[in-house]
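Structure first, sequence second, as always.
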């Protein structure tokens, strides 16, 4: 999704801007651009559709000490050079913008009446004209931005420069993350710290309503009431180590294979001999867990699928658990029972719908807010009472893999902590807790074993590459695993994939089944296996082609219409984590055969920071 970087320094900053844009590529985008105040004091604007390397090629002759740059993920107006940011007005002012301006139509109308010419279809262009309008009426750059944001409805992270004042960048935030990176006699703005890894360690996070006046040596921040405020200086722990492919063809493949390490690190320090430890979850974890009698989980996409798996664990352990998609939760009324813990799950910690749901929930009487997150320096982590980090390491592929399995591990540990309270058990737990802890410890080696299915999955993937549609089936906690498998396949191979609880097949989707429709199923050896087998028979009876990941002892075997890959026996609690792996590998290898852009699939973004 859109990314911002800006720089003011005593050196040429064009390469800093280009490098920062490359570091923001993982978020997903369709065009890029930059505006630099060049050595003649002129505003030099370059924009291009496609990858940042295309922009880099047309920027070799630009030099300057002050500039802003942007990767755009189209919302208003198609991906095109004229819609790419920065946007300018009268060749005086340039703006980069993340977010959506909701009253852009009325502003556009009044600006047209004032004679401002429009060159894009974006909602952003009204911002730059409005700033220009206020400057033409005598306001300096800071005041012009202040006046403008007062007239905007919607979400924005803004970077603004003007050739009339080449000593500053103005940054403004409302609902779209923005931070200030602090260097030595040089300062930066960025939508996330990964853009600034080589140039700044220290940074300040702007809060909603803040406007920052950033020069090379000073940062002055004003809050919503325009009062000067200090924001905490933080130290970033991000490094470049996690951003190389290490010989893999794609980040997604690397991240699938990193799951053994990612899970090991997520468990690190959190397990005692026979129990899940609570202290490592945070100083206030114990009292937050004590107050939690039921759970409400909010998330989007893959993180939502993780929540749906966890609901089976929580409810099996006697804890009421409700799960909802963030974008739906935000727009309805809620009845909140006493002692309900509000949990958000997010890999990036920047998903706008999840963040907005959390802000809304704060006024609704939940006992506390807890976030399960993979990004320590993220907005959700900062805004929650307690954050439990999944230590998956940076995930770059747009399709979430290691973040999902580490979320599941974290949710299972959380479920165990709350189970003790629900069932009045001691801190050392009981037989079931001991069993789960043992299984969690051996999870990395079980994942390794599941990764060993890759060669067989490569062979299986050939049956999918020329298909238009696919069905995924699962039952119980493996129904959301089927949903996650379908999500992976559709997002990176562009094959239409739908998941059903296998028992639902006969209520409609069975009508789709024929020899052209591959049906993928996950069949662990659990109490629902018999039921699932009957559902698979329903598919076979209609001439359907089955591709089943089945427990070796399930009694399900390959024949003419059924391809079975056997999975080693696995404990029921951790089975959903293990059965995720072959589905990730299947989608990866199908996408590889189709030649899609696996790490940056079309139309998608890694970090979804708009509604
Ligand atoms: C997963 O493969 C997706 N690309 C997407 O569904 C993602 O999980 C969703 O946008 C939520 O992101 P978050 O976990 O960073 O909040």
């Amino acid at each position: 999704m859109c990314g911002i970087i800006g720089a003011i320094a005593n050196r040429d900053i064009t390469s800093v801007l280009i490098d920062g844009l490359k570091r923001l590529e993982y978020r997903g985008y369709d065009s890029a651009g930059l505006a630099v105040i060049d050595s003649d004091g002129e505003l030099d604007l370059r924009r291009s559709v496609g990858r940042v390397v295309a922009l880099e090629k047309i920027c070799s002759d630009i030099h300057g000490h002050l500039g802003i740059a942007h990767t755009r993920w189209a919302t208003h107006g198609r991906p095109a050079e004229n819609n790419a940011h920065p946007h300018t007005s009268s060749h005086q002012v340039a703006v980069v913008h993340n977010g959506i301006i909701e009253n852009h139509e009325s502003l556009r109308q009044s600006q047209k009446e004032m004679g401002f010419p429009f060159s894009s279809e974006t909602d952003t262009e009204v911002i730059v004209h409005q700033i220009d309008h206020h400057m033409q009426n005598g306001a300096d750059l800071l005041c012009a931005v202040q006046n403008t944001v007062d007239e905007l409805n919607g979400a924005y992270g803004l970077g603004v420069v003007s050739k009339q004042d080449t000593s500053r960048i103005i940054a403004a935030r409302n609902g779209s993350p923005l931070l200030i990176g602090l260097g030595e006699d040089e300062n930066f703005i960025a939508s996330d710290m990964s853009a600034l890894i080589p140039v700044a360690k220290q940074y300040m996070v702007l809060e909603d309503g803040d406007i920052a006046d950033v020069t090379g040596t000073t940062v002055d921040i004003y809050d919503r009431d325009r009062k000067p405020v200090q924001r905490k200086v933080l130290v970033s722990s991000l490094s470049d180590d996690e951003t190389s492919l290490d010989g893999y063809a794609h980040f997604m493949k690397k991240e699938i294979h990193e799951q053994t390490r990612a899970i090991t690190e997520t468990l690190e320090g959190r397990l005692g001999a026979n129990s899940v430890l609570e202290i490592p979850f945070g100083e206030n974890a114990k009292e937050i867990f004590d107050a939690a009698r039921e759970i409400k989980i909010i998330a989007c996409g893959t993180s939502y699928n993780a929540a749906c798996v966890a609901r089976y664990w929580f409810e099996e352990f006697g804890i009421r658990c409700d799960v909802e998609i963030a974008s739906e939760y935000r727009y309805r009324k809620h009845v909140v029972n006493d002692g309900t813990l509000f949990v958000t799950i997010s890999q990036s910690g920047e998903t706008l719908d999840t963040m907005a749901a959390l802000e809304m929930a704060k006024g609704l009487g939940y006992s506390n807010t807890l976030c399960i997150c993979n990004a320590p320096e993220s907005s959700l982590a900062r805004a929650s009472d307690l954050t439990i980090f999944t230590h998956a390491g940076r995930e770059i592929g747009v399709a979430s893999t290691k973040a999902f399995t580490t979320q599941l591990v974290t949710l299972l540990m959380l479920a165990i902590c709350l189970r003790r309270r629900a069932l009045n058990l001691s801190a050392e737990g009981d037989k079931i807790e001991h069993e789960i802890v043992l299984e969690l410890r051996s999870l990395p080696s079980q994942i390794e074993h599941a990764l060993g299915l890759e060669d067989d999955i490569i062979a299986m993937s050939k049956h999918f590459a020329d298909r238009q549609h696919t069905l995924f089936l699962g039952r119980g906690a493996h129904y959301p695993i089927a949903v996650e498998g379908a999500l992976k396949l559709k997002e990176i191979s562009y094959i239409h994939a739908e998941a059903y609880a296998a028992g639902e097949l006969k209520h409609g989707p069975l009508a789709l089944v024929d020899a052209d429709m591959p049906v993928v199923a996950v069949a662990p050896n659990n109490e629902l296996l018999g039921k699932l087998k009957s559902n698979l028979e329903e598919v076979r009876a209609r001439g359907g082609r089955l591709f089943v990941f089945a427990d070796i002892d399930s009694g399900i075997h390959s024949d003419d219409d059924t391809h079975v890959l056997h999975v080693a026996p696995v404990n029921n609690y951790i089975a959903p984590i293990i059965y995720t792996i072959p589905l990730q590998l299947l989608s990866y290898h199908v996408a590889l055969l189709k030649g899609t852009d696996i790490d940056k699939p079309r139309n998608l973004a890694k970090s979804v920071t708009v509604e």
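Margin note: The chain is about 35% helix and 25% strand.
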